[in-house]
Structures are given as C-alpha cells and as structure tokens.
Design brief:
This protein is mainly α. The chain has two domains: about 220 residues, Rhomboid-like fold; about 70 residues, no CATH class. The chain contains 14 helices and four strands.
Length: about 300
C-alpha cells in the first residue's frame, strides 16, 4: 500500500539525487562551454550564445527552443549570476526533492524558465535585447517552496555581511513586488540598470511556481475556487475519515480494522505529498509504522 505512492519508494530518492546532480552539472557545463567559445573567438557574444540565448529576433525566426535553452548560458562578465543559480539549485533542490519526485522537479524548473522567458519576451518584443541565465527557474522553485513549506526560515547574508532570517512566503512576495517595480522602471521606462537585470523574467518564474502549487493542491479546479471554498473542501474530506481510539478500534473485526487503517494511511500520504514528512504528528507516524506490515 505504501509502495503504491511514488514519493514513498526508496528508489525515488536515488533517482531524484541523480537528476539533481545532472541538472547542476549541465548548468556548469554550459557555462564552461560558453567560456571556451569566447576564448576561441576572443570576443563576447559568440555564435553559440546567439543561437541559444532568448531574444525577440530568435522568436520571430521561430527558434522556439530558446525559450528553454537561454537558461544554459549566462553573463560571463558577472560571475555572481552563475554562482547564485548553482547555489539556488543545490539548496532548493535538496529541500524540494524530499517532497516531490525528480520528474516533477524538472518539469517545474523547465516551466518556470519558459514562463519567465515568455514574460520577458512580451516586455521586450519591440525594444529588443537578449535574455540569458536560469534565474527564472530558481525563482519558480523558490515560490513553490514558499507556499509548500511556509513555516521554514530562509537565512542568508544581505550584502555578504548582514545576517537575515525571513519566512520564504514573505521573501517571495517582496521579490515579486520588487520585480514588478523594477520591470516598469528599467524595462518599460528605459532607465539604465546598474547590471544585467531582467526583472520581468524573475516575476514570470515566481508566477509559475505559485501557479503550479495552486494546481498541484487540487487540480486545475482549485485555481478557480476561492481560498475559503478550497479549505472547506479539504476539511470535509478529512472529516469523512472518522478517527477511532484504541478501544473502538479493538471492537471492530480484523477486516474493518484493515479498512480503517488503509483510509487513515491514504489521508496521511496525501498530507505528506502536500506538506512533506516533517508535518506529520507522532500519532500519524505510528500509523505509518503499523501500515508497513499491512498486506494488500
């Protein structure tokens, strides 16, 4: 019964780790290959960069793959960009793969990159420019984590020396607001940014992560329901499983006990899928231990 759930199988962790490592390795390899081509041609912007990076011109030529491949080239004049991307993949991937499989993790990462590229393309369709970097993918993972585990704290050094601890949901909301304002000031109004900055793609990535969380909690219909309606539906579903104490459970026949335990375990597994293993109570963990010996 437990093995029917993909996120409860032991091999999933191994596959998740492998996918995680391969993704990080591919990002680093793309950056190294980019540096190699620049060294050969002794000038920035080699043909490889132009073919892989995203621009309005590439989309008008129907090179639609650039909506995804732009995440594998970066600004080689700003090494902090690639450092932040790799660090984000290491930290967020290690946390998210505990509650989602490698396939879903990669789909969310790719969807965030594509959505960030689409948002950026709408803003820059006429004004031009080139987009490179996987920051939108990191933003999508961060937004999903912020809503999936709002109770954790993000700890980092602001300006590399000021320690800061903040809830991820608050951080994502602040980042989204900054991205909207910066997009209007730098991308639409045309002010000169102090460094290569694409806030519209960041906002697109955040939007993709938030949207995926909403959809994953109850299908597409969840997105169109109000928060109160969705919460009420979830409560009714939980209340449909009546919790029995040890005395009441002992009065049931063995087949009824097995049926009750199956229903309880299904509810607990749904909770793990939504909020992770750390959200379980002691009683719920004991029920999972009891279910290990249950035979279909």
């Amino acid at each position: 019964m437990l093995s029917d759930r993909s996120y409860m199988r032991a091999p999933s962790t191994e596959r998740g780790t492998s996918a995680h490592v391969w993704l990080i390795s591919s990002v680093i390899a793309g950056y190294v290959l980019q540096l190699f081509f620049q060294f050969l041609q002794a000038r920035p912007g080699p043909d490889l960069f132009q073919r892989v990076a995203l621009s309005g011109f590439s989309l008008r030529e129907l090179r639609l793959w650039t909506l995804l491949t732009y995440a594998w080239v970066h600004d080689t004049r700003n090494i902090l960009q690639i450092i932040m991307v790799v660090a984000g993949l290491i930290l967020l991937g290690g946390e998210l793969l505990k509650s989602m499989g490698p396939r879903v993790f990669l789909i969310l990462y790719a969807a965030s990159i594509i959505t960030g590229g689409l948002f950026w393309s709408v803003i820059h369709w006429r004004t031009g420019g080139v987009l490179a970097g996987a920051t939108a993918g990191i933003c999508g993972l961060l937004a999903y984590l912020a809503w999936l585990k709002p109770e954790i704290e993000l700890r980092f050094l602001l300006f590399f020396f000021i320690p800061v601890a903040i809830r991820p949901k608050i951080f994502v909301i602040l980042l989204a607001c900054i991205s909207v304002v910066a997009s209007g000031f730098y991308e639409i109004y045309g002010a000169v940014a102090p460094f290569a900055y694409a806030p519209s793609s960041h906002f697109g990535g955040l939007f993709a992560g938030w949207l995926y969380y909403r959809i994953s909690q109850g299908g597409v219909g969840y997105f169109f329901r109000s928060r109160g309606t969705a919460s009420a539906s979830f409560s009714m579903r939980n209340q449909s499983i009546k919790t029995l104490d040890s005395t009441q459970l002992a009065d049931l026949t063995p087949s009824k006990q097995r049926e009750h335990l199956r229903a309880e375990v299904d509810r607990i597994l749904d909770k793990i899928n939504s909020t992770g293993l750390n959200s379980l109570t002691r009683d719920e963990k004991e029920k999972l231990n009891q279910a290990k010996n249950l035979r279909s």
